[in-house]
Design a protein that fits this description.
It is a single chain. The chain has 408 residues and is an alpha+beta fold. Helix content is 49%, strand content 12%. The chain is globular and about 65 Å long.
Length: 408
């Protein structure tokens, strides 16, 4: 079979480049229009950018497999990826088995029951942040703390350990300029987290509690249970994927709404708009920008043949701005039609749809609704904001914001 590479004139796709990470959307736009299945030869990546094609790839895990993981990084791209990223590194029956067992413990009810704890954490962080004056670093003082606290609360991580677990998780996703793989510090942080969760699993085996870790160990479906290693892998997935993406969602929500004063005023006057604020943020600038897939056989995508054994990237961030699906997609619009928003691929689709989507939405809803109750407006100081540099998540490491606190 002849492999077509499509046009490549003038398009450079380098997901490790800091300038690209600062603003990938112009590149995405060119890819969609000029080369929707692009071969990035420098890294031998096949890049899919249009919504329809991304959707089809995500729905077909027989041809577009997760067996090598979902990360771009060479050291994470291997058949043992599931040992680190749980069911994200599996397909078919193996994926279904672990997801079914995990779902037995990580239930919608368990997520919903977290609402009071999320509200308490929100109140505590907002109390402290707003008491210190009108300006605060939204990431350092709330968005970077609360999601980890929620996950740690679920897992049973002691309060005294949470800052260190958060620090290690940050190191796992950070990418250093010019380093085209997981940096040494990220590797060391991964080993440290696995060691920590290994000790925690051993403790729960000996003395079960009512937390998620114990529930995972106790989960049983048709006589099958999760092994200790499988529980550890899911905990690692939760702390990296669930924590970081929600932190970025909370930062992106303030950043984009602040840039549109008319829409900001509407949300401040109508708290019922908080859910659509969240959904438009997820569509417009999703935390998870791209996922990798392993191609199991020669396959045609949008008229281009992608060879067996290829590493293929689906660009979620590009799909969510496809002009073929969304009206004026580059515009941030909280008044966007809800039917359009339902086509967002921020949490994926198919059997690998994000298991933590409900938790992320719940956390964002509680935090942002409480913020609207307490402040009449805010201004993000974009000139002083600092972005996270990562191939997997998009958002801020620091976001200075001035808040207009409502009078009592």
């Amino acid at each position: 079979m002849t492999v077509s590479t499509g046009p490549t004139d003038g398009i450079t796709f380098d997901p490790y480049d800091y300038d690209f990470q600062d603003d990938p959307y112009p590149t995405y736009s060119r890819l969609r229009e000029e080369d929707p299945v692009h071969h990035a030869r420098a890294d031998d990546l096949w890049v899919v950018s249009r919504h329809a094609d991304v959707f089809e790839v995500l729905r077909d895990d027989e041809v577009f497999s997760n067996r090598m993981g979902v990360s771009l990084d060479a050291s994470a791209w291997n058949p043992d990826a599931h040992k680190v990223m749980s069911f994200l590194g599996l397909d078919g029956a193996e994926q279904s088995r672990i997801r079914r067992l995990v779902s037995k413990a990580f239930t919608p009810r368990r997520v919903t029951e977290l609402t009071p704890q999320i509200q308490q954490l929100t109140d505590r962080y907002l109390d402290a942040m707003l008491a210190d004056g009108p300006e605060a670093d939204w990431i350092a003082e709330l968005a970077g703390k609360l999601p980890m606290d929620v996950i740690s609360e679920m897992m049973g991580v002691p309060v005294a350990d949470r800052d260190e677990v958060r620090r290690l998780a940050d190191l796992v996703v950070h990418r250093e300029d010019g380093v085209r793989d997981v940096p040494e510090a990220g590797m060391e942080a991964s080993f440290a987290l696995f060691g920590y969760y290994g000790d925690m699993v051993e403790q729960r085996r000996a003395n079960p509690t009512d937390d998620l870790t114990s529930a995972l160990l106790a989960a049983e479906v048709d006589g099958e249970r999760l092994t200790d290693s499988e529980v550890m892998a899911f905990l690692f997935l939760m702390v990296v994927a669930g924590n970081e993406t929600t932190t970025k969602l909370l930062g992106n929500a303030l950043f984009h709404l602040s840039g549109h004063p008319g829409q900001l005023a509407r949300v401040m006057a109508a708290p019922e708009l908080v859910p659509v604020w969240i959904e438009e943020t997820l569509r417009h600038d999703t935390s998870s920008q791209m996922l990798a897939r392993y191609v199991t056989r020669d396959v045609e995508v949008a008229g281009v043949t992608v060879p067996e054994g290829a590493k293929l990237l689906v660009l979620l961030g590009s799909a969510n701005r496809d002009e073929r699906v969304f009206t004026d997609p580059s515009t941030y619009d909280i008044g966007r039609d809800r039917d359009e928003l339902s086509h967002s691929l921020s949490f994926g689709t198919g059997r690998h749809f994000c298991l933590g989507a409900n938790l992320a939405r719940l956390e964002a809803r509680v935090v942002l609704a409480e913020l609207v109750r307490r402040v009449s407006g805010f201004t993000v100081h974009a000139d002083r904001a600092e972005r996270v540099h990562s191939t997997s998540v998009r958002g801020f490491a620091s976001l200075p914001v001035t808040f207009d606190v409502r009078s009592a």
